[in-house]
Amino acid sequence: MTRSSAALRRIPISQVAVGPEEEELVLSVLRSGQLAQGPMVARLEEEISAITGARHTVAVSSGTTALVCALLALRHTGRVEPGDEVVTSSFTFVATLNAAIQAGLGVRFADIGDDYCMAAGSARRLVGDRTRVLLPVHLYGLCADMEALAPLASEHGLIVVEDAAQALGATSAGRQAGSHGIGCFSLYATKNVAAGEGGAITTDDDEIARVCRLLRNQGMAERYRYEIVGHNFRLTDLQAAVALGQLRRLRALTAARRTNAALLAEALGGIDGLVLPGEPAGRRSVWHQFTVRVTGQARLSRDELAARLEAAGIGTGVYYPRPVYRYPCFEGHPLVRTDPVPTCEQACAQVLSLPVHPFVGEDGVEQIATEVRRALS
Fold first, then answer.
1. 184 and 286 part of one domain
2. Domain final residue, candidates 188, 215, 247
């Protein structure tokens, strides 16, 4: 079926809608007078643990602080030292790199596979005498290949820290994101569960959890009893209330994303030069993004297609336009070591994310597919 242009709507790349449950939870916080970290944060932590299966969840102020806090906890517990190295993905948001640098750790960057996640073979070649942490990035809602990466970490005695900012609820070989090591999640405004700002750390390690709780609260276990040099990484009860309502709808929200992704894959199949994302065997995506590649065989370049879709009212995103380290502020940085990452370079030139959020729906998929086909035919 086709619809008149008058019926077409603007489809943003992401869309968050809070419902009556979030409103009531926020009102309950306002009425309680307990606005800072309190019982609502504790409830959020319990429910994230229930999803991930982790013994501990420590809520923090952002996904970035989750990464920083987790890596600092490894330092405070003596498991890493300044100058030790992290091997991570070259294809990620800058928070991954910033967190390692802020923890005083060197960083090396593995290339990626066709799934846009860190390739185990590339990571293996980078492991050296100072490597202590393997930091896979679960990108676009898909877990990295933990069936390959977890044995690599075990073989070399590496600590696994998962950048699971985009992957709450995703699984690899039946295990939840955040359950393979220390998990770091984001509750940023565009994530599948959004608090505006917020994050969480998941772990089965009692000591890591204890130190993370100290670090987020100025190093205090009790008021004015300082045990370590800490920070203010706390999440507020107001933010937790917003996230909690969405978390309780996560199953339904994820189902809608998965439906939209399946519809998009069907509607966009067979277009020359357009490579569609997949779901590798053994992994279940939560489809934070639906990311295509616009190759040299396509009628338009990636940027030309994005401009055409924007003019047609369809939002897009380029995640990410360069390898994470390729910016002047990291050039010559003593903690940053780079190696060739040809697959990442190609992805940076070709990837384009299309709307897949729960509010796209069948009509939205039809609108997106019609405009993409019109542009690339």
1. no
2. 247
Considering the domain architecture, whether residues 34 and 143 belong to the same structural domain is answered as yes
| Mean pLDDT over each residue of the chain, to the nearest integer | 96
Note the Cα 231 to chain centre separation in Å. Answer: 23
Residues 218 and 262 in one domain: no
**Residue 171 pLDDT greater than 80, yes or no:** yes
The backbone torsions φ and ψ at residue 293, rounded to the nearest 5 degrees and listed phi first, read -115, 130
Tell me which of 200, 221, 247 is where a domain ends: 247
Q: Which helix (H) or strand (E) holds 304?
A: helix 302-311
> What are the tokens at 253?
């929200």
What pLDDT is attached to residue 105? Answer: 98
pLDDT of residue 8: 78
**Domain of residue 167, CATH code:** 3.40.640.10
* Count of domains for the chain: 2
Residues 48 and 180 in one domain: yes
For residue 5, pLDDT beyond 90: no
Do residue 50 and residue 60 come from a single domain? yes
